[in-house]
Design a protein that fits this description.
With about 90 residues, this protein is mainly alpha-helical. It has one domain (about 5-85). The protein has helices spanning about 5-20, 25-35, 50-70, 75-85.
Length: about 90
Amino acid sequence: MTEEYAEIKKKEKAAFQRLFASEDGEIVLSYLSRTCFENRPTYVPGDTHESAFREGVRGVILRIRSLLKEEKPKQEKASGRASRSRK
């Protein structure tokens, strides 16, 4: 991945996080969850084309969710593991 591409991806992720952190963003995310089959089956018996279409639609909300996940800095991840292993 080039540095330019990495920078674009970083800016896109930050934009998604800002957008969906707002009250309106939460409303839109809830709407997308309901309409994009996030928590519903996409399989349509006897209709492979509709099943594939629905799975593609579902991919949109799953991608948005992956962009919204906040990653902990590596330092925190390592210290979190160390504190758990001491218990």
